[in-house]
Write a structure and sequence with these properties.
The complex is a heterodimer of chains A (about 900) and B (about 375). By secondary structure, chain A is mainly beta. Chain A has four domains: about 110 residues, Phage tail protein beta-alpha-beta fold; about 130 residues, Immunoglobulin-like (Sandwich); about 80 residues, no CATH class; about 550 residues, TonB-dependent receptor, beta-barrel domain (Maltoporin, Chain A, Beta Barrel). Chain A is built from nine helices and 57 strands. In chain A, the strands form 13 sheets. Chain A has a 22-stranded antiparallel β-barrel. A five-stranded mixed β-sheet of chain A has the order 6-12-11-8-9. In chain A, strands 15-22-23-18-19 form a five-stranded mixed β-sheet. In chain A, a hairpin with a 2-residue loop joins β27 and β28. The longest helix of chain A has 13 residues. Chain B has four helices and 26 strands. In chain B, the strands form seven sheets. A five-stranded mixed β-sheet of chain B has the order 7-8-4-2-21, with no helix packed on it. The longest helix of chain B has 14 residues. At the A-B interface, β50, β51, β55 and β56 of A face α1, β1, β4, β18 and α2 of B. β56 of chain A pairs antiparallel with β1 of chain B.
Chain lengths: ~900, ~375
């Protein structure tokens, strides 16, 4: 027994070197107290606060121990003798005032000396302070021991008179070495907490002295670290995955973050949650799950275009590891283009957007991919009805460099073979590929490389071929200047392109190509000024080059005259700074400003129009040419990002925010759903940038020990210079696009309610939102007034919507999920009359979006069945079975009227008009 | 948009569907004036139809008679187009001057005045050829043309298709006064001709090409199934009109609004603004576009024998069966008296006329499918 205890305590005892120069609180180390049924922890805490003693003991051995005694300035040994008399517990006190409490045996403190000496030569005096236990294989110790160990942070000599010190470091997964994002790191008294960022990095400013740092994260076992804080220093933390702890109580890490966090309107999803939600064909889909969050809508099932708080689908900045994804969909919007096996987490900012993001009006969707396993090569594969995927990850250099490579491809051609004869020769395919490499140069420098591509191809009966593709590269260097300051420098290239070609008619054979490219450079700094100020600042710059349309002959016989719309170029730069100021424990403010400047660059020829007249193709006064590199037009201005939080109680807070945004790019689309063949357009002298501001207020209250989160958020938003289109606008290959678009102003407002329970056997969320989005075009000089200049609803204005996502874990291997969605039908323009023309009855349209399609309602169901959880087996497998649209309701996607054989017929189109079962098989190795 | 059609099919498999739907809204009648027709630049009369926009729930034609319609030239010449009843107006041929531009002024019986913009005179180039190709589902008809003047880039086509078809059984007899008698040749109802006109807007453009050529522009698709058009002999007359770009765009808008819907990425329906304006009430909308052009045409014939022999072609008579009625007056009168059954041939057992073979009137009388037995003049 003795040797076992020694083994456990060995690393602890090594610590005693660090503990020599404790401040003298009570020179005689006498104890006073009145303990009534106190646990050992209560007693130890109290004694440690009065004296210089430190206690080491195994909590589990003392779980039944209670002590009742009164002491008045008595030595520890006297008190302990009384407390432990006849209890079977023993103590020993060493010369360094360390106290070892044991059961059934006494620790021989004099044995420790030689271990101390040997460790001295091996590790040095501060060996433990800058150490990463998880990565250091030879010194891997059991977590339980680490929790009981005291870590000294900072040099003894670092007493610079400041009351606080900054602890920083990485939170990592003990098994894979991947960073843990969003782990909450806090101390209880005084209550100070932070969350780890996307690199798993955290920095927290704490009062010096002895502190217990608590660390919690979703899916990870809670842990804590005992710190002796002397000055700024490092503390890396490894977390153990929850899954293996079958008998453990499930505790969620982020359970208080919605109340305590600064962010408003921020929704975080981890990929585990995403995978639980049933979706069509069982393809775990990041964007479809985002659509279930309050305030996020889409025009229909075939569209993953997001409308966030009344914003258009092009007003979302979709970032995948810092790279902008212009078209995040496959199959014309049926699936999102992100491989769920590679995605780690998704964050949606819909109201207080941090100052580091900009360039879009409504939201930022930040998708982070996983870093590869740094310990061993692992992988997973999945087979579904439409796609298969394979992912491999592992170290390139163990514990230093890792990679993750993921790919998905479709074999939807079997679906095509079921089609009638004339479609037999059609082909449809897509794939996406991800490669992430992360490399730790040294403790202070990390490099991250991301490459992403997604590609779609359609060939319809050898007639018209559609291709579209995303291509993104980014390289990121993270440098820790010191414990308080780190910087992230990113450079990258983003591209989206599509082409449409047809060779069916040799004379008219054509190919139409479009592409948008951006190169960017970002420098971002985080500076932990003090416990009350955390500052972020940075600079970023994007160079755009856009080819709006290139129409070319596509066969030798083709007579197509090449038509090239001039390429557009621009430079968008921004400087930003923001400060999170913790005024009191409960009240904090985050204030940021971002100043963006946009330069429209030559070479270009710009049409100039008569002032005060509608812009039409016939009214071009002059066309002015600009040379290469010239600054044709500059727009810019400040954007304000302010939010504040007041905690009324530990579980109740109120937050408010004000945000302004500018957007210099536009998507030209006069279809209701965002299409892959939509054209992007840069702001130019004739097309003004969009701008918007939003004011929001939220109440956050947690119940049942923070396991149930509730929130209410209200917002009001103004939008300027949003583009709508003249009747019958021509958007493709238009050299004077400004003559076909209209500037509208918009307003959006709403209230969002959410109840969320992410822990326990039954988890999920219920959300409801009431929201309106209205647009107005009343400028007679624009050439066309819409709906008599009154406010009219936007295409995606769906006032009521409600979602329930529920997951019930029957046991660790079997869970069932269900979700339900309801929303008001979206607005449409219906015919107001009928006329006879060209030998057919035809419909006449007037007021835009004056009517609505029928309401939407859907219920889905799925079951996840996992194989056994034994760790040591070659593969782990799981099955997902489900039914999409369980009730088989024929939800309308659109309503339209067609003139057919001379008569008008009204139709309702449903994308998924029946219950669709699916099955998916996944294997991990 | 073929892509969309493809997607729709995918969704059909996935359970997606289109259903008939009528919006539960009532729209008040707007009663806007609809003007259809063009100023004929050829040696034929100019025809206009004036009608009114009606309710969505009531698809019927409301002609606008009693209006005064004049074609006006820039130089002040006025050609009246007289009312010929039920909203139709016809006059001319008009002696137009190709160097002039023309417009139309309409004064309706309630005193409202409408005026179009001036439009130039378009002379339509001849059709170079009509061609056809078989596909797995039917026959596609193509038109080719070019403008030797290199002026015309925009076209519209309309067509009239006529086809000969045969009933299932050729009847040489009829039942008259309780007797089976021979049918006069002139009363034969075996061969019929039927005519249809295009109801879709068919437009094309050579604006994106380096020369003014229309090459194999599809104008019509004749299916093998669900239509008997190809069962014997088919003919199509394609009429070609040269348009201006504004006129083309107007037609394209109507086409998008009324024919190109039902996909996932529908363009939003838009207001249709033509070149006719109401002078007395500027807010009053007018539907229609006045243009000035001429018509050229071409005709081709396609025989069943020209189609792949293995190809089955729908006749509509696939379910027809013959019945034999015993030759007794009672049986004959019961079977043929009502006209539901028509005698086709005589059935002898040896020398005895055992019975009369008949078919249902639908299977025997081709006229019941909508055609006429009168052979059209142009039929070869």
């Amino acid at each position: 027994m003795i040797h076992r205890i020694l083994f456990i305590f060995l690393p602890v005892i090594l610590l005693c070197l660090c503990l020599k120069s404790l401040g003298q609180k009570n020179p005689q180390n006498l104890i006073s107290g009145n303990y009534r049924g106190a646990t050992i922890e209560e007693f130890v805490t109290d004694v440690e606060s009065q004296t210089n003693y430190f206690f080491y003991y195994d909590v589990s051995k003392f779980d039944s121990f209670r002590m009742t005694l009164f002491a008045n300035r008595e030595p520890l040994s006297t008190v302990l003798d009384r407390a432990f008399s006849k209890s079977g517990f023993y103590y020993s006190i060493d010369p360094h005032q360390q106290v070892f409490l044991t059961k059934d045996a006494v620790v021989q403190t004099n044995l420790t000396t030689e271990f101390v000496d040997s460790s001295k030569t091996k590790h040095g005096a501060t060996g433990l302070t800058d150490e990463d236990y998880g990565e250091s294989q030879e010194r891997r110790v059991k977590k339980a021991t680490i929790e009981n160990k005291l870590f000294q942070v900072g040099e003894n000599s670092a007493n610079n008179g400041q009351a606080n010190a900054i602890v920083s470091g990485y939170v990592r997964d003990m098994k894979t070495g991947e960073p843990v994002v969003g782990a909450s790191i806090y101390i209880d008294r005084p209550r100070i907490g932070v969350a780890s960022d996307q690199y798993g990095y955290y920095a927290i400013s704490l009062p010096k002295g002895r502190r217990i740092l608590n660390i919690q994260s979703i899916g990870m076992k809670d842990t804590r670290r005992q710190l002796l804080l002397k000055g700024d220093g490092k503390m890396n933390i490894d977390l153990e995955s929850q899954v293996m702890m079958l008998k453990n109580v499930i505790v969620s890490g982020q359970k208080v973050s919605n109340v305590r966090g600064m962010e408003m309107g921020l929704q975080k999803l981890d990929v585990k949650t995403i995978k639980q939600v049933p979706v069509v064909f069982g393809e775990a889909d990041v964007l479809k799950v985002v659509l279930t969050l309050p305030g996020v809508k889409s025009v229909g099932e075939a569209s993953t275009g997001l409308n966030v708080r009344g914003g258009a689908a092009d007003q979302n900045l979709i970032l995948f590891n810092e790279a902008t994804i212009f078209n995040p969909t496959h199959f014309f919007g049926l699936f999102s283009a992100f491989n769920p096996e590679v995605v780690k987490s998704v964050e949606l900012y819909k109201s207080s957007v941090p100052a580091r993001y900009g360039g879009r009006l409504s939201s930022v969707l930040d998708i982070t991919s996983r870093e590869g396993n740094k310990k061993e090569i692992t992988g997973s594969a999945g087979i579904g009805l439409l796609t298969s995927r394979l992912d491999i990850e592992g170290p390139l250099v163990k514990d230093k460099t890792s990679f993750i490579l993921g790919g998905r491809t479709t074999y939807a051609d079997w679906l095509l073979n079921l089609l009638p004869e004339q479609y037999k020769h059609s082909k449809a395919s897509f794939y996406d590929l991800n490669l992430d490499v992360s490399h730790e140069i040294n403790k202070k420098n990390n490099l991250y490389f991301t490459a992403y591509t997604s590609s779609d191809h359609f060939n319809l009966n050898s007639d018209t071929t559609y291709d579209y593709m995303n291509l993104n590269f980014s390289l990121k260097w993270k440098h820790n200047f010191n414990d308080k300051l780190y910087g992230v420098f990113t450079t990258g290239y983003d591209r989206y392109q599509y082409d449409i070609s047809s060779q069916a008619n040799p004379v008219n054979a054509y190919k139409l190509t479009f592409d948008i490219n951006q190169e960017y450079l970002k420098a971002h700094f985080n500076y932990y000024l003090s416990s009350s100020h955390s500052v972020e600042f940075g600079l970023n710059s994007i160079y755009y080059k856009l080819d709006p349309g290139n129409y070319e002959p596509f066969s030798k016989r083709s007579l197509v005259a090449p038509d090239v719309v001039n390429a557009q170029r621009a430079l968008e730069s921004a400087l930003y700074v923001s400060d999170t100021y913790t005024i009191t424990d409960r009240f904090s403010v985050e204030a940021g400003i971002r100043y963006s400047i946009y330069n429209y660059l030559g070479p270009q020829s710009v049409n100039q129009y008569a002032e005060g007249f509608p812009k039409t193709g016939d009214d071009i006064v002059t066309t002015k040419s600009y040379g290469s590199g010239s600054f044709i037009k500059t727009y810019g201005g400040p954007e304000f990002r302010i939010s504040m939080k007041y905690e009324i109680s530990d579980s109740f807070s109120i937050k408010a925010g004000y945000n302004t945004q500018r957007q210099y790019t536009h998507v030209l689309s006069n279809t209701a759903a965002i299409a892959p063949t939509d054209i992007w357009q840069l702001s130019d002298p004739n097309i003004k940038p969009q701008s918007g501001d939003q004011i929001s207020l939220g109440l956050y209250k947690n119940f049942l020990s923070n396991t149930v989160e509730t929130s209410v958020e209200v917002y009001y938003k103004n939008i300027q210079h949003y583009l709508d289109y003249k009747s019958g606008a021509v958007l493709v290959l238009n050299n004077h696009i400004e003559t076909d678009v209209l500037n509208t102003i918009g307003k959006a407002y709403g209230v969002e309610l959410m109840i969320k329970k992410l822990t326990g056997k039954l988890n999920g969320w219920i959300s409801y939102s009431y929201s309106r989005t209205l647009l107005k075009q009343d400028d007679p000089n624009a050439g066309e007034i819409i709906n008599e200049g009154k406010y009219y609803p936007a295409n995606y204005d769906q006032p009521h919507s409600a979602t329930i996502i529920a997951n019930y874990r029957v046991n660790h291997r079997f869970s069932i999920s269900a979700n339900g969605t309801y929303s008001t039908g979206r607005p449409i323009t219906l015919p107001i009359g009928v006329f006879f023309y060209d030998n057919s009855y035809r419909t006449l349209y007037a007021d835009r979006n004056a009517y609505r399609i029928p309401d939407y309602f859907r219920v889905d169901f799925s079951m996840n069945i996992e194989g056994n959880h034994r760790i040591h087996q070659k593969t782990h497998n799981s099955w997902t079975l489900g039914v999409y649209n369980l009730t088989g309701r024929k939800n309308p996607y659109s309503v339209y009227y067609l003139s057919q054989n001379g008569m008008i017929n009204g139709y309702k189109l449903s994308i998924f008009g029946s219950a669709i079962p699916y099955v998916n098989y996944n294997i991990r190795f | 948009m073929k892509i969309i059609r493809w997607l729709l099919l995918l969704f059909v498999l996935a359970g997606g569907c289109t259903q008939k739907y009528n919006a539960p809204y009532h729209f008040p009648s707007v009663g806007y004036l609809v003007v259809e027709g063009y100023i004929n630049a050829d040696t034929f009369p100019t025809n206009f139809t004036l009608s009114r926009v009606t309710n969505l729930d009531s698809q019927y034609y409301v002609g606008e008679p009693g209006a005064v319609v004049n074609v006006e030239a820039q130089n002040g010449t006025i050609f009246p187009i007289p009312d010929v009843g039920n909203g139709a107006y016809s006059g001319g041929p008009l002696p137009l001057d190709i160097s002039q531009q023309y417009r139309v002024r309409i004064t309706t019986s309630d005193g409202q005045q409408f005026l179009s913009d001036y439009v130039p005179v378009n002379i339509t180039p001849p059709i170079d050829s009509l061609s056809w190709k078989t596909t797995s589902t039917g026959v596609n008809i193509y038109v080719s043309s070019h403008d030797p003047q290199k002026k015309i880039n925009y076209y519209q086509w309309k067509y009239d298709e006529t086809w000969e078809y045969h009933s299932a059984y050729e009847s040489a007899y009829e039942y008259l006064g309780g007797m089976i008698v021979s049918r006069p040749i002139s009363d034969f109802v075996y061969t019929c001709w039927q005519t249809n006109s295009s109801t879709d807007i068919i437009i094309g453009s050579s604006a994106k090409l380096s020369s003014n050529i229309i090459y194999e522009q599809p104008v019509a698709t004749v299916p093998y199934s669900n239509s008997d058009k190809l069962s014997v002999r088919y003919s199509i007359l394609v009429r070609q009109y040269a348009l201006t770009d504004d006129w083309y765009n107007f037609n394209q808008k109507i086409q998008k609004n009324t024919e190109d819907l039902g996909s996932i990425f529908d363009a939003q329906p838009s207001e249709i603004i033509g070149n006719i304006h109401c002078l007395t009430n500027p807010n009053e909308q007018v539907v229609g576009f006045i243009g000035c052009t001429s018509e050229t045409d071409a005709r081709i014939f396609i025989d069943r024998e020209q189609l792949p022999p293995s190809q089955t072609v729908f006749t509509g008579y696939e379910d027809c069966r013959e019945d034999t009625v015993i030759n007794t007056p009672l049986a004959l009168s019961t079977a043929y008296g009502t006209g539901d059954l028509i005698p086709v041939s005589l059935y002898y057992k040896g020398p005895v006329l055992f019975g009369i073979v008949g078919g249902t009137s639908f299977c025997v009388d081709c006229r019941l499918k909508g055609g006429f037995t009168q052979k059209p003049d142009f039929w070869q």
